[in-house]
Amino acid sequence: MRLAALDHKIYDANRRVVGIGIIRYQVTMSKLLFLIFSLAFSPILAFAQELHTDVQNIWRAEVSRVVVEENRKIPGTEAETLFQLIEARILEGAEEGRIVRMENDFLKLEEGEHFFLSHIRTVTGEEYYTVFDADRRGTLLFLAAAFVLSIVLIGGRQGLRSILSLLGSFFIILYALVPALLAGFPPVPTSVILASLILVVAIFATHGVNRLSLVALGGTIGSVALTGLIAYFSVQSASLTGFAIDEAVYLNFGYPGLDFQGLLLGGIIIGILGVLDDVSVTQAAVVRELYSSSPNLSTREVYTRALKVGREHVGALVNTLALAYVGTSLPLLLLFSGSEAPAWTIINREIFASEIVRTAVGSIGLILTVPLTTLLAAIFLKKENGRSDAPTHFHHHHH
Fold first, then answer.
1. Which of 211, 329, 191 is closest to 273 using CA atoms?
2. Which residues contact 180 (CB under 8 A, 6 or more apart)?
3. Distances from the Cα of 322 to the Cαs of 269, 326, 329, in angstroms?
4. CA 334, CA 376: separation in Å to the nearest integer?
């Protein structure tokens, strides 16, 4: 009966920390925010274009009329693509209000639709207008607003604090990490140091400065350091160069002195911060709940029982992490699915090997976080047990 009661308490403790799951949305939201913030770094891509042209402008435009729309064969293949001849009115820049005509085989556009066009003036004085990309800003802003509204409505002050910590994390990434890497600082130590700073901001801003958050921070930083070492030896052993993606090639034109192998390592470290934070805070909260509900439990018993919860948590998160990486590589999987090359040859390609290393290293980091943070929590949170001012619920801030 006593074991059944304790198991019920573990289940109840796990339910109490479901609110921590709010932070998991930070991983998804991070991708959305990076997409928005990447607009600020468009000069990097423009630099690659300027290697071949004297002047290039990117302006917002509106389709005035679709003159021609038909399917045409791609030269040298049997495949077809949609071809349009459109007239568009430029909505901004030096040529605002001008109506221009251009060919379009990039994306299907309708009359009245907004998009971005590229204006190119060559060294010989010739001018070209081409479709650059769709205008997605409205959708992105709507999703961002919906995210903020939902997390504040459901998470309350805890959700608001998590948003503020997320903004603080991006501030560090955009105004400290990115400039430091572009300036030539060593990517791995720079990423580890600033990752630790991001964790301080994220954990303390979301959960306050207290014994639980200190334990979670210690466990997470320890896991980040171990994961960084594993990532370093894995990348070296697999002979990964960091040039598997097009962005690295473009970046190399503008910043040829960058250590792209180090950037790959830094990306692995930054990419797993969210889930490591999640696991650490959850384990510390479970340990504290066990001590609070069963003061007579020994440190060993609390550690063993909290580890059971951690195993279930890790099982779900590893699956989530792996599927997230596979999802980003899905077009590549489809591209190579019809290849006649052996499977091992395809997997050996750096573009796939990088994702496999990223997934494996991230999963190992997650697994190591559970016993490390649980042990720290079982030792240091025991001293909190029995204090009259010790909080007995997860929302431990003084408001």
1. 191
2. 190, 194
3. 15, 6, 11
4. 44
- Angle 2-16/299-328 helices, nearest 10 degrees? 40
3-state secondary structure of 92: coil
Q: pTM higher than 0.90, yes or no?
A: no
Rounded CA separation 87/63 (Å): 6
Read off the amino acid at residue 283: Q
Q: Which residue spans within the chain are E strands per DSSP?
A: 55-73, 80-90, 99-104, 114-121, 127-134
- Of 55, 57, 59, the closest CA to residue 121 belongs to 55
Q: Return per-residue pLDDT of the chain as tens, 399 residues.
A: 434 444 444 444 443 433 434 333 343 344 444 444 444 444 444 444 444 445 688 999 999 999 998 888 888 787 888 888 999 999 998 889 999 999 988 888 999 999 999 998 887 878 889 999 999 998 999 999 999 999 889 888 888 888 888 888 889 888 888 888 878 788 778 888 888 888 888 888 877 888 888 998 999 888 888 888 888 888 888 888 877 766 777 777 777 777 777 788 888 888 888 778 888 888 999 999 999 888 888 889 999 999 988 888 787 777 777 777 677 667 767 767 766 777 777 778 887 888 888 888 888 888 888 899 999 999 988 866 544 334 434 344 443
CA atoms within 13 A on the CB side of 112: 0
Tell me how far apart the terminal alpha carbons of the chain are, to the nearest angstrom: 39
* φ, ψ dihedrals at 61, nearest 5°: -145, 165
Radius of gyration of the CA atoms of the chain, in A: 26
Domains, the chain = 2-41+142-384 (no CATH), 55-121 (2.40.50)
Instruction: Determine the angle formed by the axes of helices 330-337 and 350-380, rounding to 10 degrees.
Output: 140
Q: Using the structure block, give the residue that is written with the tokens 């609070």.
A: 292
- CA dist 92 → 61, 99, 116, 119, 232 (Å): 8, 12, 10, 12, 47
